[in-house]
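The protein record now logged underneath.
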Amino acid sequence: MALSKVDAIAVGGFDGMHVGHQHLFEELGENGAIVVIETGYANLTPGCERERYSHYPIVYYSLEEIRHLEGAEFVDMLGKKFPRLRKIVVGYDFHFGKNRRYSHADLGQLFGGEVVVVEQVCIGGDSVHSHKIRAKIQIGDIEGANRFLGHNYRINGTVVRGQGIGKTDLVPTINLECPGYLLPYEGVYAALTRIDDEEHFHPSVVFVGHRVSTDGSYALESHILGENIPECRRASVSFVKFLRKNRKFESLDALKKAIHDDILAARSELLHLSL
């Protein structure tokens, strides 16, 4: 959709595109768009990854480039970008302009159209915020993070060479580098892995952390359950459930036995999913 047709926008950082954010997007109507203010700290949905979670067009502004603007200048900037703008949707804690001195109350005075303020969204009595999702991911509460997100936490990466013992001594894995993303707590996860541009996800068991039983290096590696792993250049991992903490094994045989148990646990967790 051409920006000249946009008559409603939601403005915010929108890292994660979580349940709370989706409540803002529900106010946009047919000709809406999303305005992302990039702070440089987004690591749940860095860059254009937000576009996976909304059908609305997204326009990006760098905070560094607009942080000097006074309130009226900020509103004027939006009006020039969206000449038919009639509605601005923001969260209850939205601030903007130089030194963040302007709130949604000021927006209502500066903007000639409608301002919709969406109140905080709670799940289980706890308000949904990106920083809380990050905290859950960092302690391994991936299910809690996914509830707040409204979707599985997903990271994308480039396939790299591993340590070389998977196929010969353990199980074959896809090894990923995922710059820009918050990586989960070290351990083993039931997950879904998408390869290159395939439309479907494969049930997987994923390890995140230092290979304390072998070379000590940090890795994110996915083993696809019951399938041969094809050659690929990129992959996406969608985390479903935390299975166990990272720990050291005294031999490759002991590690291989643990991986076998992890595979059984992951298969059990993923059995009910429609892939």
Observations:
- The chain has two domains: 3-127, 152-270.
- The longest strand covers residues 234-245.
- The chain is about 25% helix and 30% strand.
- Helices lie at 19-25, 63-66, 71-81, 104-110, 130-138, 142-149, 166-169, 252-270.
